[in-house]
Amino acid sequence: MSDGGAQRGLVNLLVVLADNKWSLGRHLSEWAVGAPVLETGVATAAIAQGHMGQARVLYPLLEELGSTLGSADERTRRYQVAALDHPFPTWAHVVAALLAVDGALNSLLLSLRGSSHEQLARRVGRMLEEERFQRDFAEGRVHELSAFPPGTAQLQAALDAVLPEMLCWFGPAGEEGVAALAAAGLLDGDGDRWRQRYLDRVGPVLLEIGVDLPARRAGSTWEIDDLPWDRWNPLQRRLASPSPAPGAALPTSSA
Amino acid sequence: MSAVTADRVRAALADVCDPELPVSVVDLGLIRGIDVDGGAVTVRMTFTSIACPCTEVLKEDVAAAVGALDGVTAALVEEVFEPWSRADLTDEGRLILRALAVV
Amino acid sequence: MTTEGELLERLGAGKLVEGPQHATEAYVRALTRTLIVSGDTELISAPAYLRAAQHAPSTGAYMTVVSMIQDEIGHAHIAYRMLRDLGVDADALVYEREASDWRYPYAFDVPLDSWAELVVANGFYDRAGYCLLGDVHEHTSYGPWKRALVKVEYEENFHLRHGERWMGIYAADPDRKRDLQAAVDWMFPLTLEWFGLPDHLKRHSGQLSYGLKGRSNDELRQRWMSTAVPLCEKLGLDVPAHRDEATGTYVIDCPFPMAFDEEAKRWDTSRAVSWDDVMVRWKARGPANEEFVAKVQRGYKQLVAA
User: How many structural domains are present in chain B?
Assistant: First the structure.
């Protein structure tokens, strides 16, 4: 790779993807015990291993690309979204993360599948073997949760904090670093296109159970509400805290 | 001292089993290449799934089995991240897994 | 349902019970009790191991524990599903029962606070589970359980190999060996207790006469020691038991039962207590009982009991 800027951009992007997958897997595993249905607990443990495994695929590649950061378990600072800063306080937060956080991570991974970086493309191919399973699991959990009377309201509360951050996570329109990566053939797409594809992915299942989204359909595209760009940290690819404190009050009334 | 050959390495790996299944890494189809350079051996391997919790244990076991061979001075395991499917099982591997009702 | 005579005839002929239609109320009661203990034991090991996994030395090691937790919840699910088939409200059992009413061995109420303690739990507790379930698999008269246990045993065997592997790694390093020995010191006698009252004190429960298990408590304790003691001896770990060459059986070299300080995780070897005292301790449950049951029930309670 001749373009040093693109290489640095790629390293940053991969660190962010790996750290988010790592933390997601870690926090999910904590809910293998405590899922509201035993079979779901078994599957949550399997899914958590899948996410940690995906992170495990990326860290050695980062080293080959010259990153000296090491893997997430060797660091105290992790480059993850605010939604993954704390253990999930409720099962609804778990479901929100499965759908909305992982949906964003996998969306971006899909755009790296055809990367001109052959090693990366191969590893992403392996990572995406889990993708269909992860997506089906997340959608299944949304339906399972909505079958409990307070489930939809709890999911809405959790998503209200997560969705704006994940919509920002794809970066502002025309972000330079992303354009450089795309120009070098390392990935495919840009922030606005990813955001649309993301909403195509997570929007329908949420609308189906009556969750309000910070976006609405306008023909074949989504019209997105104003996003909290004033709190967006482009280097760490996350919203500045305040992140919601764990143990936030639950909406319990059945709608 | 006998010369190190890929065949000898492969024979040694036939004794390294998955910690969860009585099937060797060879019969599972995980070994994707063996490079021998004098006494230095590099084994290229993949795993059934990236979620497999056994990768570290298996890498250690493979390196130990190769390292224990007469004439080997260095044993390295390189994970290649190639896809794996049931088609990669040997007949022997398929037979054992079928008996255990895994495949 | 059938009559006691028909049931005993069936069992005498070596035929399996496939459902309540082949059983009596007393048989179903004894089976239900046994399945609850089995399901509770598998399930409570999950929060116990998860807590200890926070001390895992690497992400790979952590993932291995998560995969064991996945197995354990799966095994619990098998037991509760069989209970459901017997007409028990399994959801209420798992998600609504008071912590003090759970029926797993007291050992899991004493929290595991290090990686050394976790791997000794794999080496000792999962071995105890393996002995008990192996016996059930070999002898149980209940067909659905017998068949389900093939996979369960295979996975439990993996857990105890994990324990042995790591105990070996720790035993090879003098500093870590001290931690390992400290864990063995409190966990060995606790696993001896796992198998319950000695045979001469055991009340008749129907487990043996209905062929729900084959070996007595003392026989199972012997079976456990017959592999656990040699393992520890091989690793240079002291345990209060040895093999008597004349009889070929294992002899316990400490007072048994003994007084246990559950907060300090320490046995008082100078003080023998009675089994009545032990029953009082078991019934009161130990330090982590409420924490672990609350962990299991939290997601459900957020959605249902809220």
Answer: 1
Q: Which domain holds residue B36?
A: 6-99
Interface contact flag, B50 A60, Cβ < 8 Å: no
Rounded Cα–Cα distance for residues C145 and A58 (Å):
42
What pLDDT is attached to residue B102?
63
| Residues contacting residue B72 through CB under 8 Å, at least 6 positions apart | B4, B39, B40, B41, B66
Report yes or no: B54 at the C interface, CB cutoff 8 Å.
Answer: yes
pLDDT digits (tens, 9 = 90+) for C238-297: 999 999 999 999 999 999 999 999 999 999 988 889 999 999 999 999 999 999 999 999
Per-residue pLDDT of A154-170, as tens digits, reads 999 999 999 999 999 99
C220-229 mean pLDDT: 98
Q: What is the CATH number of the domain that holds B17?
A: 3.30.300.130
**Contacts with A126 from chain B: Cβ below 8 Å:** 50, 81-83
Q: Do C306 and A150 touch (CB under 8 A)?
A: yes
CATH 3.20.20.10 fits C4-303, yes or no: no
In the structure encoding, which two tokens stand for residue A74, read together? 């060797």
Q: Where are the domains of chain C?
A: 4-303
Tens-place pLDDT, residues A136-150: 999 999 999 999 999
Q: Where are chain A's structural domains?
A: 4-72+82-173+181-239
C296 contact A CB<8A: yes
Q: Which of B79, B74, B77 is nearest to B38 (CA)?
A: B74
How many Cβ pairs closer than 8 A exist between chain A and C?
Answer: 92
**A243 lies within 8 A of chain C by CB:** no
Q: Which residue has the tokens 């301790």?
A: C281
Considering only CB atoms, which chain C residues are within 8 Å of B53?
60, 63-64, 66-67
Residues of B in contact with C63 (CB under 8 A): 51, 53
Domain assignment present for residue B1? The answer is no
Put simply, the answer to whether A148 touches C304 (Cβ < 8 Å) is yes
Q: Which chain A residues are within 8 Å of C68, Cβ to Cβ?
A: none
* Token pair listed for C170: 């720790």
A101 vs C213, which has greater pLDDT?
A101
Structure tokens given for A240: 């500045």
Any domain includes B90:
yes
Q: Scanning every residue of chain B, which has its alpha carbon at the shortest distance from the alpha carbon of C62?
A: B53
In this structure, which CATH number among 3.30.9.10, 1.20.1260.10, 3.20.20.300, 1.10.2020.10 belongs to the domain A4-72+82-173+181-239? 1.20.1260.10
- Report CB contact under 8 Å: C303, A154: yes
A240-249, C12-21, C32-41, C157-166: least confidently modelled range: A240-249
| Reported confidence tier of residue A254, pLDDT bands at 50, 70, 90 | very low
DSSP A72-138: GGG-S-----GGGSS--SSHHHHHHIIIIIHHHHHHHHHTTTT-SSHHHHHHHHHHGGGHHHHHHHH
